[in-house]
Design a protein that fits this description.
By secondary structure, the protein is mostly helical. It has a domain of 34 residues. The protein has two helices and no strands. The longest helix is centred in the C-terminal third of the chain and has 32 residues. It is elongated and about 100 Å long. The termini are far apart.
Length: 88
């Protein structure tokens, strides 16, 4: 079975409309609007900055505190295991 389709398709509008084309004008953003947008974005970025930066010493102190907490937790685990073993 062979079917041949035409390349041209007819489109009809009911009732027929007059052929009108709409010229859309390109709206450009003015210089003042662009400056206001950039200023607004800059203000938002500035307001979201960190209020204080963490120093190297403070980060090292955090790491030392983390290691000390791990050591305390391990000591508590050892104490718990030895206490359970003694109660048996």
């Amino acid at each position: 079975m062979q079917t041949t389709l035409s390349a041209h398709q007819q489109t009809t509008t009911h009732p027929p409309q007059p052929n009108t084309t709409v010229d859309y004008q390109v709206r450009r953003v003015g210089l003042a609007d662009r400056l206001a947008l950039h200023l607004g974005v800059a203000l938002i970025a500035w307001s979201r900055r960190p209020l204080s930066y963490e120093t190297r010493e403070r980060r090292a102190l955090h790491h030392e505190m983390y290691l000390a907490r791990l050591e305390r937790e391990r000591a508590a685990e050892r104490l718990l295991h030895t206490t359970v073993m003694l109660q048996r």
